[in-house]
Design a protein that fits this description.
With about 300 residues, this protein is an alpha/beta fold. It has 2 domains: about 1-120 and about 280-305, Quinone Oxidoreductase, Chain A, domain 1; about 140-250, NAD(P)-binding Rossmann-like Domain (Rossmann fold, 3-Layer(aba) Sandwich). The chain has helices at about 40-50, 120-140, 155-165, 180-185, 215-220, 260-270, 290-295, and strands spanning about 1-5, 15-20, 30-40, 60, 65-75, 85-90, 100-105, 110, 145-150, 170-175, 190-195, 205-210, 225-235, 250, 280-285, 305. Bound molecules: NADP nicotinamide-adenine-dinucleotide phosphate.
């Protein structure tokens, strides 16, 4: 079977589309034929060697964090799924390996994929949805009537978070390049700020919650747009620069877990129409090098999804 692996850190060209042995489902595991997987910016950091904790088994390392597919077999002790079930999920934190035609995954990190949601849509909403739910529901506790600033509204996480914050009844402000303003407004943003020419801090301290998916200087400057009592939710690489600057706001760094309960919420929100898929760029697994180049541009709208079957 085919998979995308790397034998060393480096540029996109280290990614190899190659034949590897099929896995087997161990106790508590599912053997899943993958129909769709996505490319995530976090994987670029792993490829470059910036996240060594992901290389738990060393090289060769199989890429990919999320999947949607069909169960081919179940390991000992699995009762929640049976062969033929359509499932989707995200590998445990610190583990990669879904960029392959068939994978063995712990049943605990999978959820049933509703028939109304395609494999491509399920994977486009899996890691983005988990991140947005943990950030805005569990950590940020965004409430109706609150004002939320979402940085990078046109990105993978942003596309989900804008819709979800709007669904929770918030007033949504987002940063995006001008050519993405129509897109983010279609997703539900009330206001879009072109961060290239317009300093977002000009809005003043009007926000209850800021979602930071950018980091660096954006993270520190975001403090000034929070109301007293506001929450800065950080999912980007975290610096210490924002610490201790304002005693009247809370800084949150949610651990985005991979659990069935949240995946089921994602499925429910998708089926009800509350959250739709971001813009999707469909690619083949053999095009992973090109996918990483696109990710590295930092200008991708929505998600790259690999369609395998
Ligand atoms: N903590 C976690 O568990 C977790 C989970 C998932 C992801 N993440 C992290 O979250 C970050 C975002 O992920 P993603 O999938 O959304 O990335 P992405 O899809 O690659 O983001 C691309 C978007 O970023 C926007 N952007 C770039 N620079 C910006 C700036 N200065 N201000 C506002 N927008 C800017 C671009 O918007 P324009 O094209 O409009 O300029 C582009 O649409 C990554 O660092 C990722 O590693 C963390």
């Amino acid at each position: 079977m085919k998979a995308v692996q790397m034998d060393q850190h480096g540029g996109p060209e280290v990614l190899q589309y190659r034949d590897i042995a099929e896995p087997v489902a161990g106790p508590g595991q599912l053997l899943v034929d993958v129909y769709a997987a996505s490319a995530n910016p976090g994987e670029v950091k792993v490829r470059k060697g910036l996240r060594p904790e992901f290389l738990t088994a060393g090289f060769p390392h199989t890429m990919g964090r999320d999947f949607s597919g069909v169960v081919r077999a179940v390991g000992a002790g699995v009762t929640a799924f049976k062969p033929g079930d359509a499932v989707f999920g995200v590998l445990p934190l610190g583990v990669e390996g879904t960029a392959a035609e068939t994978i063995a995954v712990d049943a605990t990190i999978a959820a049933m994929k509703p028939a109304a949601l395609s494999h491509v849509d399920a994977v486009a909403q899996a890691l983005t949805g988990l991140t947005a739910l943990y950030s805005m529901e569990d950590a940020g506790a965004v409430a109706k009537g609150e004002t939320v600033l979402i940085h990078g509204g046109a990105g993978g996480i942003g596309s989900y978070a804008v819709q979800y914050a709007r669904h929770r009844g918030a007033r949504v402000i987002t940063t995006a390049s001008a050519h993405n303003h129509e897109y983010v407004k279609r997703l539900g943003a009330h206001e879009a700020i072109d961060y290239h020419v317009d300093d977002f801090t000009r809005i003043g301290p009007v926000c209850d919650v800021v979602l930071d998916s950018i980091g660096g200087d954006v993270q520190r400057r975001s403090l000034s747009v929070l109301k007293p009592g506001g929450r800065l939710v950080i999912i980007a690489a975290s610096t210490k620069d924002a610490e201790g600057v304002r005693a009247d706001v809370t800084i949150l760094r949610p651990i985005v877990k991979r659990d069935r309960r949240h995946l089921e919420r994602i499925a429910e929100l998708a089926v009800s129409g509350a959250v739709k898929s971001p813009q999707i760029t469909l690619m083949k697994l053999a095009e992973s090098v090109e996918a990483h180049r696109l990710l590295e541009s930092g200008r991708l709208r929505g998600k790259i999804v690999f369609e395998l079957r």
